[in-house]
Amino acid sequence: MNIVLAKLVISLLCLLCTAAVLFRKKALTNWLESKSVSITLSVIWALFRLLPFIAIYLIAGFEPTSDVNGFWDEASKASLGQVVYRDFWSPYSPLYAYFLGLWLKLWYDPKMIVLTMAVMDGIALLVSYHFFRPFHSQGTFLFKAIIYLLLPGSLVLCVIGAQEDVWMWLFVILAYWARERTLRVEWYAVILAIGLLMTKAIFILIFVPLLILEKEKIRFLIPIALIGIASLAILYPTVGLEFMQPLDEAKTLRAPNIPALLNPWFFNRIGVGEKFWNWIGLAISVGLSCLASWRLRNADFRIMLSRVWIVLYATMMIVQQSAYSNYIFLFLLPLVFDVIDWKNKKQVILIFIFNLLCVIHPSFWWRLGMPCYMVLSDTWASSQLLLDYSMQLAIVILTGYFIWLSFPKRSAI
């Protein structure tokens, strides 16, 4: 449990620093109004990403653990020219391992994967500035950028966990930026398709609400279809049906999620682990995101995308059996910049608790042996199991709260 305690301590320090920054919100925002965005973002990224990386991995000498071992296995083999899905297993899209492999050409070490994640997080933050610029003054955006970089849901999951989930947000806002600059729906579609090939299969879920609102549906679908056909034309002769390996992730039972919480109350009779729960989860998450996008059809596209993104992937985090609380890193950027009212004490306290629990729980749950509760008595069989179930319940409730906060209300439309 040492890693759990380490994450707890680091997370609490992050939250104390965040609270201190919020206490000086007005003065700090005013001071940042006159600062260069690119220089300031570079400085705060260096402070809250590069320096922690140097301190943990180069000075203290810690080795990356957890998911980094899996990323290293994929990326190192890809960098040597091996074929994804055929020569090595991968739960990610086909280009993911090769992109990481390119970075290993600079430094052939697992630490390079962590540094890559930190760099990509910084790029996502920079592109988010251009995405959210119409809605924030310069000082306000930079203030929120500091908050984002300090929150444990981004700092710990990026520098210690080396999570890549923020990449999906990066690609969807890059696609929007390309469309705005070129006025071409084709480039928008091409970047979305590349994002799918570079990240995870779940990235395709955002295509559904975007397609519903797209006025030029044929021009949107043709580039995606062409890239999809070309990808299959390469993958199938090379690896056969092994390119479907990422879909195996849906079979992996994780926590927290609603089925796992309900299971002991129904004495293990609700079919946890069965495929139909995956389909129910997809229907709920995609259905809610489509409803949200339709309600926001007359809103600014950036507001619509931010809210729909949170509704889609936050819902997925608690209804899909294979999702886990690390997925906070997938939607934390739009949550910080678009939804949370940083003057609202209730929202601030809840986002703090949410970050803390989402960072700690996956490590705690895994080290307990990934428990699945069959009957109610299992949940209090030991103090650790009771704590685990309580954290799962709290994460699901808080996720529901932030989904509700993001979801467009009829009265506001």
TrEMBL record:
Transmembrane region(s): 43-62, 112-132, 141-162, 187-213, 220-239, 276-294, 301-318, 324-341, 348-366, 386-407
Keywords assigned by UniProt, alphabetized: Membrane, Transmembrane, Transmembrane helix
Protein's recorded name: DUF2029 domain-containing protein
Annotated organism of origin: Dyadobacter arcticus
